[in-house]
């Protein structure tokens, strides 16, 4: 359920996305908000500027949260973002332990507005293979018998 506070923070995420455009970056913005309503961190997309395919604001904030917040604090935060996080960012959000994500545009809506946003090719993957060899470093690290 989207609250009035959620809408206020979503408007801030949209403003960050609009600002990104004014400085030549892609139109995506995000912020992290603590349980008390304090803004903890903000970011916008800098993929082109940084020449870094991972410089999405959602992933930057997930990485920030993983470094700067203990797991209990991270679980009480909400990420507000101008667009629904992509698969890469979703993975980072899950691993960072954030408690909630609220987004303005869905992926489907973004693709309707910009069809190239959904034009990623499917990369073939083959495997699994070499189980016994591959398990050795896993067992060594995690201490499996």
Q: What does this protein structure show overall?
A:
The protein is α+β, with helices and mostly antiparallel strands and 145 residues long. The chain has 7 helices and 4 strands; from the N terminus they run H-E-E-H-H-H-E-H-E-H-H. Strands 2-1-3-4 form a 4-stranded mixed beta sheet, sandwiched between helices. Helix 5 links the parallel strand 3 and strand 4 (100-105). Helix 3 runs parallel beside helix 5. It starts with a helix and ends with a helix. The mean pLDDT is 96. Residues 4-121 form the CMP/dCMP-type deaminase domain. InterPro entries: CMP_dCMP_dom (IPR002125), Cytidine_deaminase-like (IPR016193). This is tRNA(Arg) A34 adenosine deaminase TadA.
What is the topology?
Layout: H1 4-22, E1 29-33, E2 39-44, H2 47-50, H3 57-68, H4 71-75, E3 78-83, H5 87-96, E4 100-105, H6 107-113, H7 131-142
Mean pLDDT level: 96
Main sheet?
Answer: 4 strands, mixed
Low-confidence stretches: none
Tell me the Rg in angstroms.
Answer: 18 Å
- Distance between the amino and carboxyl termini: 46 Å
Shape call: globular
**DSSP strand count:** 4
| Residue share in helix | 40-55%
Protein name: tRNA(Arg) A34 adenosine deaminase TadA
InterPro entries: CMP_dCMP_dom, Cytidine_deaminase-like
Domain CMP/dCMP-type deaminase: 4-121
